[in-house]
């Protein structure tokens, strides 16, 4: 009798966990609907209650092509959450960008791709205007992400070298020029 009751409890817990998990699980493979634009696709797949932090971008970086970058947040000025969708057959596999360790509000100005490390592959760069929250003027920050074939890594050292002084902003062209001066 105890074994039967234990089985019932275990199966009940498993059923409840699977039902609760179903509502909160996030897909890892996505596909476009017929006639759907990049922007519509991005808005459809981000978690409910979130908004796009920047226009959805498609580009070639790392060792793959036609990657899709989706940055989103709950409120304007919140730090962004980033997904990169990498083609896998007829679908896209989702990879989450690592946290930058800079939890202060960002406004994403541009998403672009450039070589920013010692290999020949291009990296993903996110150019932001950052509000320090300390009463100072906003400043520019560039977050650099490298794809190693399995996951994205935040390249803090090169990101720090691309940081812009408080009160200054930088364009994509200026970031590219700075990368070139650093030997990339």
Description:
The protein is α+β, with helices and mostly antiparallel strands and 184 residues long. It has one domain (29-181): Lipocalin. The chain contains 4 helices and 10 strands, in the order αβαβββββββββαα. The strands form 2 sheets. Strands 1, 2, 3, 4, 5 and 6 form a 6-stranded antiparallel beta sheet that branches. A 4-stranded antiparallel beta sheet has the order 7-8-9-10. Strand 5 and strand 6 (91-96) form a beta hairpin. It is globular and about 45 Å long. The termini are far apart.
Give the secondary structure arrangement, pairings included.
Elements: H1 2-24, E1 29-30, H2 38-45, E2 51-52, E3 57-61, E4 64-73, E5 81-88, E6 91-96, E7 106-114, E8 123-130, E9 139-147, E10 152-154, H3 156-161, H4 172-181
The CATH topology is Lipocalin
Separate helix tally: 4
Average pLDDT for all residues: 82
**Which term fits the overall shape?**
globular
Low-pLDDT stretches are 2-25
Listing every helix as H and every strand as E from the N terminus to the C terminus, the arrangement reads: HEHEEEEEEEEEHH
How is the main sheet built?
A: 6 strands, antiparallel
User: What class, by secondary structure content?
Assistant: alpha+beta
What is the CATH architecture annotation?
Beta Barrel
- Count of beta strands: 10
Q: Give the termini distance in whole angstroms.
A: 71 Å
Beta percentage is 25-35%
Give the C-alpha Rg: 20 Å
The helical percent reads 25-40%
CATH class: Mainly Beta
């Amino acid at each position: 009798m105890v074994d039967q009751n234990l089985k019932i409890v275990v199966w009940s817990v498993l059923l409840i966990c699977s039902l609760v998990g179903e509502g909160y699980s996030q897909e890892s493979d996505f596909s476009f609907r017929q006639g759907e634009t990049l922007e519509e696709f991005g808005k459809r797949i981000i978690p409910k209650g979130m908004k796009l932090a920047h226009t959805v971008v498609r580009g070639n970086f790392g060792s793959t092509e036609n990657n899709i970058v989706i940055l989103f947040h709950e409120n304007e000025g919140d730090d962004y959450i980033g997904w990169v969708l990498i083609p896998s057959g007829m679908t896209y596999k989702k990879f989450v960008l690592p946290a930058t360790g800079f939890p202060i509000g960002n406004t994403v100005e541009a998403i672009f791709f450039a070589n920013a490390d010692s290999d020949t592959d291009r990296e993903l760069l996110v150019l932001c205007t950052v509000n320090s929250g300390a009463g100072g003027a906003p400043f520019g920050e560039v977050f650099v992400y490298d794809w190693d074939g399995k996951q994205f890594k935040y390249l803090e050292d090169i990101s720090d070298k691309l940081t812009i002084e408080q009160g200054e902003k930088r364009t994509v062209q200026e970031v590219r020029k700075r990368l070139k001066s650093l030997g990339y």
